[in-house]
Amino acid sequence: MSKIDEVRKAMVTAMKAGEKERKESLSMLLSALKNKAIDKREDLTEAEENEVVLKEIKQTKETLELTPADRSDIIDECTKRIAVYEEFAPKMLSEEEIKEVIEGVLKELEIEAPTGKDKGKIMKVLMPKVKGIADGKLVNQVLGNMMK
């Protein structure tokens, strides 16, 4: 079942249960998925669907960060929206799993002690492997910690 179908089914369930906020969040996510499919002019792949969900989460987190502390209504709305979106997000790699992938890339590139000069080469090979399943900031941080 595609993400569009999953989100639509969850939205119907939320409407029947009278969960207005959840329904609105799901409606926004469904719109984003449909718009991406329309732009592409064909069905989305699973990776593309995950990309849309992650993008929506990222945008909502950015809104949350930029919201003044006295606007609790917006903060609550964003927090609830993120919780709903995360139900449909792919499982992200943990720090340990990212470290294992990085070690595999280091072996592949035959680099024993990575330095700052190697970072570009490493990231070029690493990022396509973790795209959509790991947070880029966390990947960068883990790699930075390994370069000491």
Describe the structure.
With 148 residues, this protein is an all-alpha fold. 74% of the residues lie in helices and 0% in strands. The protein is built from seven helices and no strands. Helix 1 packs antiparallel against helix 2 (20-40), helix 2 (20-40) packs across helix 4 (72-86) and helix 6 (119-130) packs antiparallel against helix 7 (136-146).
Helix coverage percent of residues? Answer: over 70%
SS-based class: mainly alpha
SSE string:
HHHHHHH
Please compute the radius of gyration using only Cα atoms.
19 Å
Q: Give the beta-strand count.
A: 0
**Nearest-integer average pLDDT:** 88
Task: Report, as a whole number of angstroms, the end-to-end distance.
Answer: 45 Å
Low-confidence parts: none
**How would you sum up the global shape?**
globular
**Count of separate DSSP helical elements:** 7
Largest sheet report: none
Classify the oligomer.
Answer: single chain
Q: Estimate what percentage of residues fall within beta strands.
A: under 5%
Give a quick precis of the structure.
This protein is mainly α. The protein contains seven helices and no strands.
How are the secondary structure elements laid out?
Layout: H1 3-17, H2 20-40, H3 46-66, H4 72-86, H5 95-108, H6 119-130, H7 136-146
Helix pairs in contact: 1-2, 2-3, 2-4, 3-4, 5-6, 5-7, 6-7
Keywords:
mainly alpha, globular
